[in-house]
Amino acid sequence: MNVRRSAAVLAAVAVLGAAAPAAADSSPSPTPQELPSALYGDTDPQYDGVWRQSLALLAQHAAGAEPPKAAVGWLTGQQCADGSFAPFRADPSAACDAKTMVDTNQTAAAVQALAALGGHDAVTEKAVGWLKSVQNKDGGWGYAAGGASDTNSTSVVIGALAAAGEKPGEVKNSGKSPYDALLGLELPCTGEGAGAFAFQPEKDGSLAANADATAAGMLGALGKGLLVEPGKGDGEAAGSCVKATTPEQAAANGAAHLSGELTAEGHLLAVTPGGEEQPDFSNTADAVIAFAARGDAAQADKSYAWLEKNAADWAAQSGPAAYAQLILAAHATGADPRDFGGTDLVKQLQAAGPAAPGKTTKATEKDEDEKDESSPFGVWWFVGVCLVAGIGIGFLISNRTKRQQP
């Protein structure tokens, strides 16, 4: 496995940061005592607030638990007037402007969560409209509007389109659909990394296999989002790599590659520069969902069983998005997230949300509930591309192994 995806996001800061120096200086990060009480987690939301909130709401919905109204209101209140979302807006009453660093990943995650919950059509329609407006000519999306297309961003947007009732294959720019972009990011069936997805092309145009992008690409190629219903798919293990001319074959090729990357115990490894190989809990959970989406139940169940034995401590250290990711993996395999090796993932996630002990706020839940979802919202933002280190599919955007190229 290559350098973890967080390196990509840090590189994107260098690419995008120069465009928003004033945004970085205008609004300091909230202290723990100033965090919105409706927000999940007690860490700085500057880079991942909307992302982790969306996963938390989606996971509770998957587990049959109704998320708090205040938490949903906080998420809808983060939307800009043009439909996009930034990771965190300290003052939603101020209008978004050119310095507001919105991105496709936060926006797509919010769409997936709110579409699943239902009753937020005005919000999701505006968000989908914005996503369509920033589609690249190759059919894909980058993390930031206009950035080079990458597998993870393209896939999470495909999930949002599908969740909102769109047909991703019919969403095109210059005649290219997001599936065209994904096919262009998959490695051929010869040579190292055969059948895998790359995050983005290298500077010389070559493609490097990326396990996390492969899990994301599998979901995107199948037209699925983060919420995968159990028992779907063809039920067949991936075979050998065959030149992909369809998204479904690309997903099968990705599954074949990813299966070969798993250890005998069923998990993926993370390689830290200068360090030893360690289990990659986040990427393994991504893989579980991707395998389940294809219907490869045997492999999904094996990897999930490994997570069940080993991932509880990781989730406790990583926070609400990690709990959410494991809940979504449990849902995809038909497992019970309330009995995850003796841990109740749903209870742990809820404990990190509204009314969590010690959390205070500048704005009350009543303030959040009464925000007009269609009004223009303001924002500050420091370039939010450090997003979700260690949380999975950037899921699609957890620990990127490639850099976001300009």
Automatic annotation (TrEMBL):
The chain crosses the membrane at residues 379-397. Gene3D superfamilies: 1.50.10.20. SUPFAM superfamilies: Terpenoid cyclases/Protein prenyltransferases (SSF48239). Residues 21-42, 350-374 are annotated as: Disordered. Keywords: Membrane, Signal, Transmembrane, Transmembrane helix. Residues 1-24 form the signal peptide. It comes from the Bacteria. InterPro entries: Terpenoid_cyclase/PrenylTrfase (IPR008930). This is Terpene cyclase/mutase family protein. It comes from Streptomyces erythrogriseus.
